[in-house]
Structure prediction request, 553 residues.
Amino acid sequence: MSTTRRKIMSNALGMAFAALTSTILTLPAVAQNATQALSSESVIETIKKEGVIRIGLSIFSPWSMRDINGELIGFELDVGRALAKDMGVDVEFLPTAWDGIIPQLMSGNFDVIISGMSITPARNLTVNFSNPYAYSGLTVLANTAMTAGFALKDYNSADVTFAARRGATPATVIATLFPEATLLLFDEDGAATQEVLNGNAHATMGAEPTPSIEARRYADTLSVPFDQTFLATGEGFALRKGDPDALNFFNNWIAVRHANGWLKERNDYWFKGNDWESQVTQ
Amino acid sequence: MKPAARPITLKRALNTTSVALTLYAVIVVAIGWVSYTGAQQMGYNWQWYQVPKYIYSFTEDGFQPGEIITGLWATIILSACSFALAAILGLGVALLRLSGLLVGKAVAIGYLEFIRNIPLLVLLYLFYYVLGPVFGFDRWTAAVLTLSVFHSALISEIFRAGINSVASGQWEAATSIGMTRMQTYNYIILPQSIRFMLPPLTGEVVHLIKSSAIVSVIAVAELTTIGRNIISETYMSFEIWFTIAAVYLALTLALSFGVSAIERRFPAESQ
Prediction:
């Protein structure tokens, strides 16, 4: 072969060899990039890099409310601050209107929603949910005098009258749990509670914390006789889809906080007691 | 010689039996067709087949009335009790007003104006939520009291008009033969005034049956309450409300026909 042709051929062979080895050697690196990309795109990384976790919530007593100084206090605030402390970052709360909260999460205005959001299939189609960190189910609110000494099964008798709002979830739950009892249906929750107050009905049911609040307000007449909650589907953190690292982190954080009893203690403080009421009202 | 034939006007042509019947049939069919096609085009899933089980059912125990029939019976009892009490109260108020006593007149007029100017729903809430705990009314008593008090105001005016329409000569004749006021009322005036009072009283009974629907807000188990409860479970608003309206219509029509039969025994024209 002539010199030029040999040079061309060796150059071409060399380049082919270089291309081949570089591809083979970088194949594992390409594979690694997919995993790295997923982790680095996770919101956990964003939070760590920026040093602040931005939490979206909606004002709803006692999940989150403003105290007399205008500061945010409530169950969600405690959860958010504990989460930030465990992550080693600052926390920023962004109060939002409820109907806009999921769209704002999707557009990236905040990293996670911690706002007492019930886990429902319809929402799950748009966002991912962590495991539940609270269960605010329905409890029984009863007229203390009329139901003295009643066990749960005593409520299921034809002499017992329940009051409920027509078409609301408590009405269906009462019909399922206490089918023998008489059920009176009213237009508003207030009318149903008034029946129990006046002694025209034995009990009603409602989503916590309303029954506990009413029982404290009318302590002589009303009481929540059972600690047991019904139909507690659970509330979870809402986060953007496609983020397995964040989902794993939040689930485990919640599991740890459940296991050491901190979540229950905070839940009882805000929902079952009213020591905090002096901070929100004069 | 025969008189000239009466000219055929449009009005007389339309009044002939054949033309009138055909025209009526055409209008009824047109209304029915428009309603039917409108209903079909709504895209609503009509479930009329689900309605009969609320009216009646045949179980091992035989014929069982459905919830709607139970509600209808409750409405009938409620309306009957309320009307009886309203008639007694109304008669008392009317007699007070006609008694000639200044005190009687003042009390009657005060009662009338107070009751007539309060909406029925507000009166119901007053009786059930305000007076109920004070006097210990249960929801049924509060419902009967509200309906009777509300309609007694209207009925007392009917009684007053009926009594006033008896010719004054009857009063003079009664006093001239030495009857007391009470005897005059009992034997002369009230029997004669019934024929003037029956038509408006029928209207008042129908009015009372219709306004009894309002007690559904305090969960008395009558026809409208049953309808609302069924709808909150099944969401069949159109079918159930049409059925309930038809039941009310059947009840009031039966009542009107019954009272027309009674009216024929008390002819309105004076002899």
